[in-house]
What does this fold into?
Amino acid sequence: MAVTPPLPPSQAKPSIDGGQSTRLPGWVRALSAVRVWSLPLVLGLGVALAAITVRTPAPVAAPSAGFSAERAMADVRAIGRMAHPTGAPGGEVVRRHIFDRLESFGLLAEVHVGQATRPYGPDRSRLAAASVQNIVAVMPGRDPQAPALLIMAHHDSVPNSPGAADDGAGVATLLETARSLATDAPHARPVIFLVTDGEELGLLGAQAFFDTDPLARRVGAVINMDTRGDAGRAAMFQVGPQSGAVLDAYRRHARAPFAHSLTALVARILPNDTDFTVAAGAGLPGLNFAFIGDQLAYHTPLSTPEHLSRGALQSMGGQVLPVARALADAPELERSAAPSAWTDVFGLGLLVLPWWAGALLWLWAAGLGAYAGWLALKAKLTHPWEIARGAGLTVGATLAAGLTLSAAAALLGTDGLRIYGLVGRYELLFAGCSLLALGSTLAVLTIGAQRRLAGPWGLWLGALALGLLLSFGLQIALPSAAPVVLVPMLLGALGAVGVFTTGTSERWGRIGLAAAGALAVVALGWLGGLASELFVAAGPFLPALLCVFVALGLMVAAPFASLWCKRRLGWAGSAALVTGGIVALLVVGLSGPTAARPRPTTLLTVEEGATGPAFRVAPGASLDPWTTAALGAKPGHAPLEPLFARPVWTAPVRSPALPAPGVETLRIEGRLILHVRPGNSGRRLTLWLKSPAPLTDPRLNAKAANWTFQPNRWSRIDFHAPPPEGFTISLAAPDAIDLQIVAAELTDDAPKGAPPPPPMPKGWMPFGDSGATIVVTRVHLRT
It folds into this structure.
């Protein structure tokens, strides 16, 4: 066997493991010494920094002159005593409290009654309508003609939820802000406080205000508050059009800001509108705030004052109050384009990036990355083909993480009420998905390292090159998302330059590596906070979004990960992480409900007219123990059209006949007029229509309605909080018509005298319209 003689010392190439050369750069020898523990240390510190980033502030005691969560909790307790959906008796109690509190600050409060409609669905075949009661109070300003600042939240909850967070927290923040602003009034401009009704029905109170209320024409800027959970830092997650000036006020005055321009993009994608949607649609600049942690309480009976995080309330008020005061005292409410991107820096301040600043930042990062690559190529630490393979490994690791998480989501199931089983154990869900993403990433990197596809420098530079291309595309097409890539790319390029310029001194090599590790910790902490926020918003539905953070993390942590994966630790670490992730997700998927983490369930009573049969109905895809016991043996499973288009579980029940809603029809000059009136003072009155003939030009209570009747399909109108006289719908119709009409009235109570269902066991909670009764009237009209 031939033996290859060793290279002369002058020709020896540096080795990532220390090699045999005695003339290796000092940072190579330093990296060889720390390779075992560098990756766990960097990851651990990054996770710790991320945890600090998303931590809520401590609630401030009541004597404070600023925003006090403890003081605001008195309002939360008054608002969150009972469910108070639009049209329910609890709503009047809540409105009375809000009205009295605003007047106690010296403000003249009024209840503005109106009607609003909103179409639903891609074909607009469903119309939500309501009689709404908005509460409005105006704090006069020194200049009565100046554009007013509007501060708003909504007072209605969903059925079966006390709504202490959604939106008791927003209303309490509004009231605490009003109290504070009243102490040093008058301000430069008027401040309008608007507490809307019907937000949960489709933003109907806000629609009524901006469509018909004269005060809406005086508004110059808007601050809105809402929630989608009971905990977490409040994020300023959305801005209105021409909001450059109000965003600048937020940058200068918000305490512990928590905001990222990427969330505005996510807010446009996710179907979670708030009243701010209507304000922005009216062309008003403004800011939208919400916290979304602990979503098991979202729209459920758990949303009580005791369950609400005081820190989340303090986080919201600590940002809203100083910004509201600044805007109220601003000489002008200027309208200017918002910058392309912004991000908070660990809650210490807000970094604002106009497009030109983002472009310069990209050029700086690109220049540093190119310089680092030149240094590495000059020292013959890597070569272009290895850098290309490093980029390929980064893509492969990202895809592996995405596919793994997608498979986990398919196995867990995220449809219907199943999502509450996932968010009920959110910490384990997030930990399990993170471990799976990290474990699958290390598996791909281990293959690459042990097959010598790319060393640490090739992987690092390949990840940075990939980031360079991705951030360039985002800066051109979606500049609001560009900082997500620019920040880790810049810090990774700085770290690479620092490492590659430390010379042959081992001491300076250790310093360079320590600096690169510190930059990696900062980047991972920032990315971890953002990943946590995005995962709360969309992760239970789409956990694969974490795979994006794999590529971003490799821009700063690639050399540490590569050296870990080169040894047996690669496979061992990957297996341990994947196993831990699987175990965590198994616990999430297999754990049953408990008293602390109950699952939602729904059971209603449906009566077919005054003389027809009555049913208990469970609309879930499967039966839980409580609905099984309530329905008895052999329940039916079929659609109950038009109330339930999908199959529901039904069983007959003895129930005293309740007054049914009335339907009257009239033909006048080519129009069909339907008058629907309630029979039981119900909370909701619904009308379904189905006919092969086209029905056009709808008018609801004599006003044009943006609603489309679909022939041969059930089209629907939901009228919430209907008046005693009901409502009228008028349509242009042909003389010959075959029309099926169904009117259904919903009341929140079970029929008196009907046998009650068995007591609900611990671990289950009523959801939506559970416990309600629907009385149906069916009419078949042929002419």
Summary: The longest helix spans residues 506-538. The chain is about 40% helix and 20% strand. Residues 1-24 have pLDDT under 50 and may be disordered. The CA atoms of residues 120 and 203 lie 12 Å apart.
